[in-house]
Every structure is written in C-alpha cells, then in structure tokens.
Amino acid sequence: MAAQPLGHSATETRHMFLNMGPSHPAMHGIVQLIVELDGERVMGCDVEIGYLHRAFEKESERGPYNNVMPYTDRLNYVSPLINNFGFCLAVERLLGIEVTERCQYIRVIMSEISRITDHLTCIGASAMEIGAFTVFLYMIKAREWLWELVEAVTGARLTISYGRIGGVKADLPEGFAEWTRRVLEEVRKVVLECDTLLTRNRIFADRMQGTGIISKERAISYGITGPFLRGSGIVLDTRKSQPYFVYDRMSFDIPTGEHGDNYDRYLVRMEEMEQSMRIIEQALASIPAGPINIDSEGRVLPANVMVDEAKMGQVAGFKQVRVTLDPTLQGSTRGPHEAVYSSERRVALPAKEDTYGNIEGLMNHFKLIMLGHGLRPPAGEYYSAVEGANGEVGFYVVSDGGDRPYRVRVHPPCFAIMAALPELIVGDMLADIIPTFGSVNMIGGELDR
Questions:
Q1: Coil, strand or helix: which one is 35?
Q2: pTM, whole model, 2 decimals?
Q3: Does residue 135 surpass a pLDDT of 90?
C-alpha cells in the first residue's frame, strides 16, 4: 500500500445531492427540489416547477371570452372565485362597463369567503406537515362549512365557474346572510382553537421562527406580493392600493410581520382571516337589494293563474307583476338577473324568459352565442389585478375587436415566491424546507407556463 502524503487525510467530505419531489408528500404536486446538502445544512437548491400541461393562457385565446371562466377556476382551485372575478374585471374594464352595485357586493363577499378557505387550507396543511395533525382536521372542518356556502351560491365546490363578464351566474340564495353569519361564528371558534394549539406551542414556534427568512428589500426585488410580502413588513394590498368592486367602502386592517420568517407569515394569515370575516359582515349588512324582488304590492303570480286571468281579460297591471314560471323555463337567473348582471346587451346574456318569450330576447341571445358574433370588446389592451389569497392575481387581456381574446396573460402570485425559494432555504436545515415550502402555499395551476 502506498503511503499517504504528509498532511492529507485518508477520508474526505463531500456534499450530497438529494431529490425532493415531485412525489414528495410535502411538495404539494409536481414540484421537484434538487437540494445540495452539507450534512443536514442546505448549501444550494435548484427548483423545478414542473408542468401541468394546462396551457391556460393559450387555451384562453381559443374561444369566446366567457369560455375562459372554467380555466380561471383551475389557476387556484382553493380560491377559484377570486380568479373568476379577476378575469371578469379585466374584460369589463376593457369594455368600459360597470357591473351592478349588488353584483360588486356579491363579488366582495364571495372573494373573502374564498380567502378564508385558502388560508385555512394553507395553515392547516403546513401544520400537519410539521406534526400538528389535529389542527389540519379542525381547519378542514371549518373550510367545509364555508364550501357549503360556496356550493349553495355557485352550485359547485371547486370548479365553480360562477363569474360572468358583466355579472355573476346567479344571485345569493334566500337566507344566505343569516347562514353566513352563523358559519362565521363557528369559524371564529375554530380559528381560536387552532391559535390556542399552535401560536404559543414550543415545538411549532421553534420550527417556524427564524426559518425561511426574506427581507423586505429582497421580497420586493422578487416581485412578491400578498401575505408573503406582508410577513416581511410591507403594507401592500391591492384591495387598498388599487380599490376595486366596493372594497373602498369596507373597513379592515392589513396585518404585517416584522421578521419575514415562516412564523410571521403564519400570524399574518391568521389575522387576515379575521379581517376577511369583518369585510363579509360589513358587506352583508350593506348589500343593496337591487332592482329585483316582487312588485310594490308584493304579489307573485303563478303562470297558470296569469293565463286564466288573461282569458277573462283581466290583464291590468300584469306588467308590474313578477311571474312564476315552470323551473324548466325559468332557469336559474331570471329573478336576480337584473340585480347581478350589467344591463349592457352587448355583454350580458338575456334571461331565459326573454330568450324564449320574445324575438328581441332571442336575437340578443344568439348575437352573444353564435360563432363569429359574441362579446366583442373594442381593440385595445388592459391589465387589471385583484388581491388573491396568495397575492396579486393580475390578468392582461388584449382584444383585436373580435369575439375571443387575442392574448391573455396571467400574473400568478406564487410564481414569484417560487423564484425566491432557493434563497429562502439555503443556510437552513433540511427539515426547515417543509415549513418554508408550506408558507409559500404553492399552487401548481398558477405556475404552469
């Protein structure tokens, strides 16, 4: 055996490369991290965001404007209503129209319900991944109560397709306000329970404090928005900085952190849920009735009675009476239609009664549905943003004057955060990747390019 040169050891230390994902239980989908380790210390990281092959932006250019709505559902499937309304707002501004006041209140209420469901999912899943499984169960229970509200309004839970350019699919169901207030009371109890379990828990605090740190300057340089940015101490919220719908009439606070670590982002999301509940309660208290409901005498006349009366020539006042029709003819939008849809006939589909009941309604319907006709914004371009649960959700829409978008581009909030992920985890321990990645709240549908 040859003798070792003087001053050299017989052993050597090398960095180890470790693949995390794309099937890792804490990677939330198709993301892969290639981590360079010195022992358990993270020395470097390469992030591969993967592909869902949805091609949201390209698919949006293949059909009429309202056909984009199901695609926006899937950008962030935990809070799809916000995505619906964000795209609608961009096209409406391109058209130069305003939706009804009641519709704007509905959009605010449903957006804030979505924000709470998103935060419950994010915090619950993150807590579970570092051992607090009970918190996950509690938060998913509360999310279920809120999803029941969403289901009652939209008819679906995840892929809701509730937004319409110029309005929403249908009005709030009867008794919705009281039901929502009761649910919010229960959600507050759950949030308090989870706060008791987590916030001062020694294990949870040790895993969250001082990990995944990003300074306010670096967060801004990456273009990060939302609770991730606010956790670093930046007071920026699209609902305040560029008010849309009726957010400027609502009183609410913007919570911020000080250290920019995982613990601050947790605290920000917990407080944002309370602020969202404040907004919902204010909106429910002040939402206008809209130009719907029954006539001034409160009469609702069944269709068969109306026909019988007409046979006897008793038709006085029929124009002022709301007619109750067979459900197959009535559809789901006639009653609330005028309250939740713009009156712009070049945008809003007519109610089924008009489509089936008079030639003007039939022509209006076909002019918006037939190939080569449809909703046609003037040639131009517009970028509009709303405050999503993860941050700024922006849509850039270009129109060439045709019946389908010429170009659609989306600004997804967690795309910028994923770009900063290597900087967040380098220097931390391998185990710290889990809470840091959980605080990103990565949504694969947003990342797909």
A1: strand
A2: 0.84
A3: yes
Q: What is the crossing angle of helices 262-286 and 176-198, to 10°? A: 160
Long-range contacts of 195-199 (CB under 8 A, 24+ apart): 195/270, 197/132, 197/134, 197/135, 197/138, 198/127, 198/132, 198/135, 198/266, 199/267, 199/270
Helices (H) and strands (E) in the chain, counts: 19, 10
Secondary structure, 3-state, 195-262: HHHHCCCHHHHHHHCCCCCCCHHHHHHHCCCHHHHHCCCCCCCHHHHCCCCCHHHCCCCCCCCCCCCH
**CA torsion, points 312, 326, 356, 99, in degrees to nearest 10?**
110
The phi, psi pair for 429, rounded to 5°, reads: -85, 160
Residue with tokens 């509690």: 138
How far is 216 from 264, CA to CA, in rounded Å?
Answer: 13
Q: Are 287 and 109 in contact (CB under 8 A)?
A: yes
CA angle 388, 392, 394 (to 5 degrees): 100
- C-alpha–C-alpha distance, residues 161 and 73, integer Å: 6
pLDDT tens across 172-203, in order?
A: 888 899 999 999 999 999 999 999 999 999 99
Q: Please give the average per-residue pLDDT across 386-390, as a whole number.
A: 95
The CA distance from 218 to 311, in Å, is: 76
d(C-alpha 405, C-alpha 238), whole Å: 25
End-to-end CA, the chain: 57
Tell me if 232 sits within 8 A of 216, measured CB to CB. yes
Q: How far is CA 334 from CA 321, 337, 435, 442, in A?
A: 14, 5, 48, 39
Q: How far apart are CA 387 and CA 268, in angstroms?
A: 15
User: Phi then psi for 71, rounded to 5 degrees?
Assistant: -70, -40
81 touches 88 (CB < 8 A): no
**Which band of pLDDT confidence, cut at 50, 70 and 90, is reported for residue 293?**
very low
Q: What is the mean pLDDT of the chain?
A: 85
